[in-house]
Write a structure and sequence with these properties.
Length: 179
Amino acid sequence: MIGAHLRKGALTAAAVLALSCAGAIQQAGADSPPDSYYLDCAHGDDGSSGKDPGHAWKTLDKASSVTFRPGDRLVLRRGTQCSGTFTPKGSGAPGRPITVGAYGTGAKPEIAASGAQAAVLLRDVQGWELRDLDLSNRGGPPAPSARRPVIRSDTARAISSGIYDFTSCSTSRSCTVRS
């Protein structure tokens, strides 16, 4: 009887310890430093880690497959053009936006959607900051009621004031995001 009581007490203590450790691990993940990811559409490799310029990813599809966390950043190599649509996952937090920008030297990196739904498609996300990019969405003429925006969002929170500013827009199909 005493042995059964001790075993039950030990199991209870083990369960409490396991739950405490799980909470500490979860908290440690929430407080971990933000990550930086690199995208080089000319010379990258989607099989790489994306964690430094020498191991940059190659495609927007790869970058779109990652769930970003508050404070993370994705930087595109200057002087390159990425074809397609960037559809990010994850949301920033107050004071910790997820940023997309440029690295290296040369012209701003371009995301060329070539008539797709958008160059950047913000769906079910918020807290993103875009800067130092050249976004375009040129293609064949759209249907009379169709639009080809460079940035499209399903929620105003994703693109609220201050997350991106356009410095030049020749048409609704080509814009440069602020430096």
